[in-house]
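Just wondering, does anyone understand these tokens?
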Amino acid sequence: MVDPPRQPACWNNQPDRPLRIALAHDWLVGTRGGELVLDAIAHAIEQWDRPATITGLYTMFDSGVPISDAIDALPRTVSPLNRASGALRRWLLPAYPAAVASLSRSLARDHARTPIDLLVSTSSAAIKGLRAPPGVPHVCYCHTPARYLWSQSDQYESGDAKGIARGVGLGVFSGALREWDRDSSDRVDLFVANSGHTRDQIRIAYGRDASVVHPPVRTGYFTPSDETQRDGSLLVVSALEPYKRVDLAIDAAAAAGRHLTVIGTGSHERSLRSHAAGHRGGPVTFVGHARDDEVRDAMRRARAFLMPQVEDFGITSVEAQACGTPVIARRAGGALDTVIDGRTGMLVASEAPEDWSAAIRAVRPPEMAGACRSNAIRFGASRFRREILGAMDAACPPRGPA
């Protein structure tokens, strides 16, 4: 049973003007899965059969990098933390509640000048704690309750100096931050989770229920190609951070004796390169950042796509399936929603490299390609648009003529 909206909806929703919607997002420092969802929400609002307009976007950090045409065109309000160097963003974690409080005051001032009818946040850190003005419902599309507080805090620690410092910081501040994170969840009237796994995490962390709306996948762009031949390699597309467990993918590829391509950047890259250098198995190529067409080409060529981490949903794994490529993933998290064991890939229960190597040998790319593509189609943009607008309608139902 999904929680109904917890306060009267849309006091300012007047039939004679468009619905005014404010968006909020943790940070705008690059384009990854969360930013693609934010862009999809903006496009869904544009295509709604209810007249609606987006008044602005509230975020803790904005590096100024282009995100998308729809997002880049929005007026933005940023927190005072944005004055700090971008390299310090993750080290400013204890100040996130103050940043959200500052944005809440900005939103209240803006609302006093031009009232809004609905607040929609997309959150994997702290922005779900944004306080909507009185009488304005708040819908939160939750990618995950903050991993570093609730589910994967140990994965943010590593043996290098940065990892040790992260661990010490979390040890000092995590208790107070968890309390704030739990208390501020009351500022959300309707939670929408990106997977069944995230819905469960919302229940554990906040004691709240949520509907599930899977993120949109660009299945029209990520497609199979008859002109591209499989080369037997393995592929990871991921941020290079400790919790992404790319080290496990390196171990698995070495055990299988296959070439691994790693696309992505992050703070853990130097450690991962050292880890790969210590193996005598198949070679590991670190590509760094890659364009969409380069990622698509790599997906079309790979024998299998590896997702060794417990992912909240895993958009890239569905993109790989859309290209007809099987996915080998942990039997946990969002993979339970997106990978059909034995049909579109393999789910591995352990972290043992030999079990992953066995799964690599077991996948059959030519035979699985059709099922992979069909499975990915389930997560297309039209379904997301219909379901996310349904959630907004539930929080802010249309009002008839006065």
